[in-house]
Amino acid sequence: MSSTLSTSLPLLPSLACFGIVAVFWWPAWRCLRLQGLSYSLPTDVGLAFVFAFGVYAAITCPFLLLHLSADSALVCVLSFWLAWILITEYLWRKNPQSPHSACRNPLESNWQVPSFPWKLSLAGGFALSALTASEIIDRTIGLLLMAGIGFAHVVLGMRKQESRSGVVPQSKQSRLIYGLLIVLTLYAIISPFFFYRTDADDNLYLSEALVLQHSPHLGLYAPTHRGEALPSNPIYAWQSFELWAAMLARLSGLHPMIVMRSLLGPLLTLFSLCLYAGVLRLLIPRQWIPTAMVFILAYFLFGMSSQWTPNNYLLPRPQQGKTWLMHLGILALVLQSFYYFQQSSRRRWLGVFLVSFACAGWAPTAIALVPATLGSYACAHFLRSRNRDTCKQSILLLIGSIPVFLLALYLATHQSAIFAEESLASSEFLNWQNLFFFLYLGGGHGGGGLELAAMVGAPLLLLFFVRKRAWVYPLSFSFILGASLLNPILYPWARAACGGMWGYLRLYWLLPIPIFLACLGAFWVHTRRNHSSTSMNQSISLCIGLLVFPLCGAKLVWSSANIYSPPQEGIAIYRVENPYKIPAGLFEIAQRLQTMPLGPDHRILCHLTESMHLAPLVEDFDFVFAREYQTPPALHALGRVDEAKRRQDLAFDFLFGNMEIQRARSLLKQEKATYVILNKETKSVGDLLLALGYQERMAREGFSLWMKP
Question: What pTM value is reported for the model?
Fold first, then answer.
């Protein structure tokens, strides 16, 4: 039995892991200061990490794409980082008073004081969103009413904008706002330690981190079928994030599952909140940012309307690179693009370039998200000030996405149709309307209220701009994105360009729903018609505003009632019982399995949920079937089509009792299924296993291990 599989979190190795991350972040932080690119303290913290990861992705890219060894990659990274730290420290000591950036907040006092009708319409929009999401009123009627209120008030407000005067005063902050900000921030950072939400994608990404630690050929074989040496999917070739987690685990002595499931969550939350604060600093008065951050935190602590909305990722799925892409990479792109247009220079363009490298290293989804982000942003800037300089800047900004185009070129020359992920087959979502309202917003089961409220209220933000200097993001950016990609007319083209429905749905991640809600919430709390805002008024407004979240059909993220998929499919959210975040009964079975014969001649047959936990745990575990887009494509690539069908039948028909005993006996022998693990859903197969000669070796908390003698 491996001594690494303990039930307690190793304290010293965990602290060492955090220390390694700090060393990883440090030289980029120094460079921001030395190059005069500093913005604000929270923003610098997040951007420094993104830049550091961009450098790391650039260094490890050749090792991953050429399938070199993990040892050579580790030596190269450590050598470069040591040299980088020494150089930056030398330059810092030589010139500690390096000038800082003069980038100013473009929006200090450019906000109109909202009138009572504005606040009434906002409240009505929230109420209608809640009623529509809860299906209390017809969806069509609710959407028409919300659209009518928003459009009418924007038109009236724009007509009266020039006649209104006055700006929002420097109001005194409520103690409740700061108290809530502290409590919610701490809860958001700490809760990933203690809770976990199962996700089948862990099967692939965490298994990658396990095998990349000492791999002689990075990414050459499928991580869930390493004993059989099945080919890997080229789309996952640039796995810098998984390699980074593997290196953290190797240097700290921790298991990769502990690093990715237990330690990365707080780091991601901290860095992401720093960047969200940086984006808000461009949009609202500085004294409103604490209130806006309260609403951002409330959004991420409530919801998960569907798995295609931003709040489904930050807290529940920090172990996956696409979460870091969404909540670090895209935000850093926005910040760097803004400052690049404000003060064009090579250093700022280099920042965009490094962020693009980081995005490509986090997830292949960057192929769609980075060009869409930069393209929409550049188009919005060009339309805002149409001149030759802006056109040149826009073109150069798009060139900054070269890393993702290189990844796209690599995939175009290596990707086979066999490995292409299947599009969503259900005819229910073949049209744009059902895709948006039922799949994205989750309207079929009472979700989507928060997203609807944000999108309905977003046009009202235009009323607060006097000189319109901050329209670019999120308003103009969102308009360009929606007009070019997220609409029914271009839906067939965009879907095909993104590689199918799964790729197209990821474009919705770019909708800045948290930013919309944060700005609307800050306006709700701080603005008063009579230019006064007492702490008591702010506290009352804040409480009323936060009540919107549960009223919109949202529930606490860490709640068993909080599901992102249709109720019949469900998800499991539970308090963790070990640092690997594996159910205690299954963890005991895994420990027992390690004492038995393992390898490709002794495969494990289990449900997808169990393979998602076990595949990243022990490198010698081999499985009959991992997932639909992992096992069959790899076998098809080798011409073993019949074997792929047999394995899939075992994973589904057999485990759920839909297979005749003679066929089951033949398939189990052919596919070398020495072990079978049953859970509460598949326990009815126990009698069939007895008839087939299997013996129950262990049963723990709803799980049982069966073995063929």
Answer: 0.89
